[in-house]
Amino acid sequence: METPRTVLVIGAGLAGLACAHALVRAGLDVLVLEATTRAGGVVQTHRGDEFLFEEGPNTVQASGAAFRACVDELGLTPRLITTAGSGGTRWLWHRGRLVALPSKPQELLTTPLLSWRAKLTLVSEPLRRWHAPAQEPTLRDFLADRIGMEATMRLAGAFVRGVYGAEIAQLGAQSAFPRLYAATCVHGSLLKAAKSLQHAPSGGLLSFPSGLEELVEAFTRALGPRLRLSSGVQRLMRTTEGWTAVLDSGVHIRATQVVVCTPARAAARLLGEHLHNSADTTLSERLATLPHASLTVAHLGFEPTGSRNAIPAGAPRGFGYLVPPEASAHAGGPLALGAIFASELFPDRAPRGARSFACFLPAAWADQRSDDEIVRGATLDLLQTLGVRPSSSQDSDSWPQPRVSRVRRWHNAIPTYGVGHMHLVHAIRTHLDQHAPGLQVAGSWTDGVSVDAVLASGREAARRAQAQALAQA
Ligand SMILES: Cc1cc2nc3c(=O)[nH]c(=O)nc-3n(C[C@H](O)[C@H](O)[C@H](O)COP(=O)(O)OP(=O)(O)OC[C@H]3O[C@@H](n4cnc5c(N)ncnc54)[C@H](O)[C@@H]3O)c2cc1C
């Protein structure tokens, strides 16, 4: 048994780090317990062979208020780097080639990506008033009702794959995009709602010269000995004074407040016994079985222009491309869900003149293959999608080969915010408030999956824990 703490934070991903940092700034006695040997969770920057690969998140929206606040408090603002504009042209695979996505709303009228019928349905959307149904619709049904099935599947279906790694029919409209859904309820129109939420130009995408792990390193420095690695928590027990965390090592640590910042399945194990006696007895089971997206990322770094192994100069440039569900591999399209042109986003991600790519591949395909097979398959798929068209039967020695490659397999990495997800999180929080005071939850399954949403969720949990600690004092 160790000296009791005021707050224990379980999990040192971005949610846990942001939570702990806010609590330290508020003057509370905090200890962060992390199961693995490193902090940062899915934020993992790999540097080597002159390439920098972001194995987890690549960029953060410049409009992210929680990210900005953390960066500022950690003194990292001078280290921020920004993409030019919104990160360059975004491409969509359409009818056998990459087509630039409209960058302004008015370009929707001229884009070859949509038929005239689809364009008409889209622009007439504000004329057809929307009334929220009693039950949350899937994102696909909600959007199809507003902008038609063609634009929904082709544009939104591709976008959703890029954010959630999931298919549009798997998401709940309100759960996955709560602000947009709420604004549509107010305005009765999706396009009016989208306009009302667009206050200022987004200001591009952000990172740091040494990648997003700079943020993790700064949090780690600020927390110092208050961050304890290799300290997985096995069980949380309720006591008369508060809570006791039982570590895998058998050590017991007491605290008055606990913030669980682990992924959903680990949270379900820790919260399970405290979610019992709920009117909704399935809460812990639903949390334990929350669907997640799994995917594999193949990072490919090619030689500079001029080399035989360079990507030919005419290949598309910009942010990257997405493949809409209708054009997936089973329909004869690319294998990847999409790819980020990593070396185009920020300087020094690759040697001068060289290009690097992060190709997002379905886990179902990658799971049956070795890393070498994945690199080979991803390279061929990338080259074909970019229009550098080796045929699969052609001798692979004649295609440009990546000089550096790295395969990262992510299992159950991104929670799928399906229909009813928001209600589940709300029901869990309400139950904990009433029956397990002093226990908070935060992380990618609670308030949104983006880096900014996760940081905001950690900071908000810190605010609630601080208020409860003050009330108890
Ligand atoms: C491949 C990929 C690409 C992404 N790209 C982007 C992007 O470009 N932009 C963007 O905004 N977002 C992106 N995201 C989403 C975003 O990065 C994540 O949602 C976010 O970083 C998750 O943070 P977290 O703290 O909630 O969880 P995690 O990062 O999963 O951290 C949870 C931590 O809890 C620890 N833990 C688990 N169980 C225990 C236990 N029992 N005891 C103690 N510790 C425990 C884990 O070891 C881990 O360190 C991406 C995500 C992935 C996977």
Tags for this model:
binds flavin-adenine dinucleotide; 19 strands; seven-stranded mixed β-sheet; 473 residues; protoporphyrinogen ix oxidase, domain 3; 16 helices; FAD/NAD(P)-binding domain; alpha/beta; 20% strand; Polyamine Oxidase, Chain A, domain 2
- What is the CATH class of the largest domain? Alpha Beta
The low-pLDDT segments are: none
According to CATH, the homologous superfamily of the largest domain is FAD/NAD(P)-binding domain
CA-based shape: globular
The count of DSSP E runs of length 2 or more, i.e. the number of strands, is: 19
Number of domains: 3
Mean of all residue-level pLDDT scores: 93
Cα-based radius of gyration, to the nearest Å: 23 Å
Do you know the CATH architecture of the largest domain? 3-Layer(bba) Sandwich
* Biggest sheet layout: 7 strands, mixed
Question: What is the first-to-last residue Cα distance?
Answer: 22 Å
What fraction of residues sit in β-strands?
15-25%
Q: Which cofactors or ions or other ligands sit in this model?
A: flavin-adenine dinucleotide
> What is the CATH topology descriptor of the largest domain?
FAD/NAD(P)-binding domain
